[in-house]
Every structure is written in structure tokens, then in C-alpha cells.
From TrEMBL:
InterPro entries xrefs: Selenoprotein_Rdx-typ (IPR011893), Selenoprotein_T (IPR019389), Thioredoxin-like_sf (IPR036249)
Taxonomic path: Eukaryota, Viridiplantae, Streptophyta, Embryophyta, Tracheophyta
SUPFAM superfamilies for the chain: Thioredoxin-like
Keywords for the protein's UniProt record, in alphabetical order: Redox-active center, Signal
Record's keyword annotation contains Magnesium: no
Record-given protein name: SelT-like protein
Region of interest: Disordered: 31-68, 211-244
Signal peptide: 1-22
């Protein structure tokens, strides 16, 4: 095989080996940081630094608000380009319910689709290796190269590009779940898999608002206050009317008495 064939065959093998190493490599252990290291680190703030107050204010979580203590999990399909929609919904919820905690997570596909997506690179490399070195592979298994092998080998570069593109499309399809699931405190609020649509911002705001008890308390407390003001204003008006009536009667009685005195 010439150098071009070796490069075209070695590149998919290298990518496949890197995927396998990344898949089965253990995660590096997290190095614990002591208080002394965090205080004396390069990014530590000095006591007189004015930016230390701003950084501490940004680091402290916002716990005040109607949404404090509520956690919303937005589980979406990362390979379906749903991240922008999830970020928009997160900003909307944080603005509507201050103090709410919104978590963005990837919703993985089922296990059979994940297993098939891992097998696609193996099939790609196997098809390309067979296309490039089929003359040595088929005789080792006691087989004669089929006619379709020679027809594909006649246009080997186009065939290899088609195999690579089709394999990438199949892998992206198998890795996609098409999900946009919304959970509020562990309870499913909206499911795109069952509804076959995205929730609107107003709909999601109402669904989350119904799960937050503080929002109901604030609305319920506002109604009796308005009723109390109306009820308090009515007796005041009645009292003013009742107090004005005796005054007019007294004046009329005085005028009648004066008239009788004059006649006498």
C-alpha cells in the first residue's frame, strides 16, 4: 500500500483507539485542597483587595425569594442541539422565581442505542480495512473476494468517504434521545418524549409556579388584605352618614323652636 492509503487507514484507527482509551480510562482522583492552600493560592484575595467583596457576593447563593429551596432539573438531549433552549428556560425560571436552583443535565439514550453507537466506529474501521487490504484478508479465511469488493475498490476513496460519513451520521443518531424532561423537586412536570413538543415559557412558568408553595401564599395573602380594606371602608362611610343625620334633625328642631317663640 502507498503512503496515501496508509494515512487514510491509519487515521480512523487512531481516532478509534483514542475513543476506546477515553471510554475505559478511569477518572483522575480529585486532589483535596486544604484551607491553607485555598488561602495562599495564586487566586486568593488579599484582605485589602476591593474586589474580594464583589467576588464573595457573587459566590454566595441567592437564598431569598419565592423559589428558594426548589430544585428544577432540565434533562435534555445534548447531541440534538437543545442546549440553547435549556439555557433560555433556565434564565426565565431564575428571573421569574428568584432563589430557584436550575440544573442542566444530559438525558442519555437507552442502553441498546448507546451500545450500538460504540460499535459503529468498529464497523467503520473494519469496513475500511477490508476495502484497503481485502486481497490479503479474504484468502486468510479461505474465501474468494466477492464481485462487489472489486466494484467498491475501483472507487476506494469515494467508498471510504461514504463509509466515514454514514458511520458518523449513524453514531449521532444513536446517541440522540430527543428528550427535554423537566423535573421539579424530583417529580416529572413536563416530558417531551410523551408530549412530542417543547413547553412554552408561559406554560413552564405556570407548571413550576404550581409546585412552589411560596407563590400560592403570596397570592392568597393579597386577597384578604384587599377585602379587609373594602370592609373597613364601608363601616366608616356608614358611620359618617349615621353621625350626620342626628345633626340635621337637631338643627330642624332648633329652627321650629325659634319659630314658635317668635309667634308667641
Amino acid at each position: 500500500m502507498d503512503r496515501v492509503q496508509l494515512v487514510l487507514l491509519g487515521l480512523p484507527i487512531l481516532l478509534f483507539c483514542s475513543d476506546v482509551v477515553t471510554l475505559f480510562a478511569p477518572l483522575p482522583p480529585a486532589t483535596p485542597q486544604t484551607d491553607n492552600q485555598s488561602r495562599t493560592g495564586p487566586n486568593a484575595f488579599q484582605p485589602g483587595d476591593p474586589s474580594a467583596a464583589d467576588a464573595s457576593a457573587q459566590a454566595e447563593p441567592q437564598v431569598d425569594g419565592p423559589g428558594s429551596g426548589t430544585t428544577v432539573d432540565l434533562k435534555f438531549c445534548a447531541s440534538c442541539s437543545y442546549r440553547g433552549t435549556a439555557m433560555t428556560m433556565k434564565r426565565m425560571l431564575e428571573t421569574s422565581f428568584p432563589g430557584i436552583h436550575v440544573v442542566l443535565e444530559n438525558y442519555p439514550p437507552p442502553f441498546p442505542k448507546r451500545a450500538l453507537s460504540k460499535a459503529v466506529p468498529i464497523l467503520q474501521v473494519g469496513a475500511m480495512a477490508t476495502l484497503m487490504a481485502g486481497d490479503q484478508i479474504f484468502p486468510r479465511f479461505g474465501m474468494v473476494p466477492p464481485p462487489w469488493y472489486y466494484s467498491l475498490r475501483a472507487n476506494r476513496f469515494g467508498t471510504m468517504a461514504s463509509i466515514w460519513l454514514f458511520g458518523n451520521f449513524a453514531q449521532s443518531f444513536l446517541q440522540s434521545s430527543g428528550a427535554f424532561e423537566v423535573y421539579c423537586n424530583g417529580q416529572l412536570v413536563f416530558s417531551k418524549l410523551s408530549e412530542q413538543r417543547f413547553p412554552s415559557e408561559l406554560e413552564l412558568q405556570q407548571l413550576i409556579g404550581n409546585r412552589i408553595p411560596d407563590s400560592h401564599d403570596t397570592t392568597d395573602n393579597n386577597i384578604p388584605d384587599s377585602q379587609d380594606t373594602i370592609d373597613n371602608s364601608i363601616p366608616d362611610s356608614q358611620d359618617t352618614i349615621d353621625t350626620n343625620i342626628p345633626d340635621s334633625q337637631v338643627e330642624e328642631n332648633l329652627e321650629k323652636d325659634l319659630a314658635l317663640d317668635v309667634e308667641l
